[in-house]
Structure formats: structure tokens, C-alpha cells
Specification:
Layout lengths: L3 H17 L1 E2 L6 E4 L2 E4 L12 E5 L2 H11 L6 E5 L4 E5 L13 E6 L4 H9 L6 H10 L4 E4 L8 H9 L2 E13 L2 E13 L7 E6 L8 E10 L5 E6 L2 H19 L4 E3 L5
Parallel strand pairs: 4-7, 5-14
Antiparallel strand pairs: 1-2, 2-3, 5-6, 6-7, 8-11, 9-10, 11-12, 12-13
Helix pairs in contact: 4-5
Amino acid sequence: MMDATTIDKIERLALAAALANRLENGLIPAVLHDGKVLSLEHLNAGRARFRGTFNTTSLEGFIEYVGSNGKLDLSRGFIDAKKASATVFLNIGDELAPGHADWRATLELEPAAPYAALLAINGRPMSQREMTDFIEDWSANIAPDYGDGAPANLQRAISAIRDIKIKATSETNSVEKDFGAKRSALEEIEARSDAGIPPKFIFTTTPYAGFRERDFVLRLSVRTQDKPALILRIVGKESAEEDIAQEFVSLLSNDLNFPLVVGSFSP
């Protein structure tokens, strides 16, 4: 049977061992257990520091949240202009005083419905029915451009597309020689409509909420086959995308008071 002195020594050794495994950094208590560091922060009444991720598709909401919580000496933002997305690390700090970079806000803009519809049909062959359905669905945004000063009569353009006719003409040349013969054939296929097919359309929309309205020029082409296939292609699409990206950077830079960089960053 152990005496009181022995029991007291055992208790003091056990307490010393427990204290030896306890890690104190002034903020978050932790212990060493089985070779691993385990945080005890969840046992406290509250977190030792604030952290988390704010996600939104709203430009206005993103600017409001980041503007309220961002600080010049702690926050940095990174913009992916082509994807219309941005990430701000609100507690990243700097090289001299780095932060944990675990409080962040992310923005991923969703295209406006007309702009999304425009991108979906760009360069895609459509039947006459599909083309007229698209024009009718977005009649508030689209207008034909005949290029000759004719009025932008949308109903005339729809009638022309519904009434496209394919006309084929051919010409054959034949040359007879003493030791052979030469044959050649030239076929011309033309798509026509009595109502007049417009060569271009103008599609007007804002690409994203909060952006300025733009006119997108769509060139119409017709593939002549058994049934005509119609294609609308955005003229200068790459240039338009660059202009939208520059506006995105400007909108964020004008409203936030800490550095923003075009690019990505992983802490």
C-alpha cells in the first residue's frame, strides 16, 4: 500500500506531464496528443480570432462587405477579369507582418440573362425555327441592321428567316480532244428570301448587373444545305471581352481602398 508521500509525487508527476504537453501561444490553447497538435479553441467561449469566407454573386454586395471590413494594412484583392471573379483576403497582412489569410471574400459574377443567351448561341448553327424563337424571345434586346438605312423592322427580319429559299444553279463546260475529254462543273448555291435577309443584328444588353449597357454586332450567315442552317456570330468578341474586363477592374478599384491585383493568389 502506497503512503501519502508516494501518492503526492505521482500526482505532481502527472500534472507536470499534462502541462508539458500543453501549448500556449497567447491566443489559442493546444495540446500534444499522440504526436499531433490538437487545438482547444472550440472549448473556449468564443474564437480566438475572426475568420471565415464570404461568397456572393452580387457586385454591390461584395463591395459593401469588403469595403466595411477591409483595411489598407491588412487586406489585398486579386481579380480574374476574364472570369469576372475576385478574391479579397481581409487578413493577409504583408511581408513584414503576415496574417493568416483565412478571412476572405469571393465574388463570382453571373452573366445577365440576355448576355448568357447571346453567348449560348454565338457561332452555333440553328434551324430557322430556332433562330426565330431566339429573336422573338429577346425582341426587347435585338434589332436587324440592313446596312442601307432601312428601318429596323424586327417582324420583317423574322418573316425573311422563316421564308428562306435555297436556289442552286449549275454550269458545265465540256472540251473534247483527240485523246481525251475535259469536263468541269460549277455550282452556285444561294439563300434568298423575298422579305430580305438582314446581314447583321444589333444585340443590346448589360453583360453583368452593375455594368454599362453595350451593343453587340451579330453577323448572320447561312449554310446552304438541304435545310438552311443559320449562324449568328459576335463581331469583335475578344475586343468586347477585354473591354468588359477593364470595366470590372475599374468598378472594384474605384470603390475599395486597398491594393487590387489582376491575377490569382494562394496563401
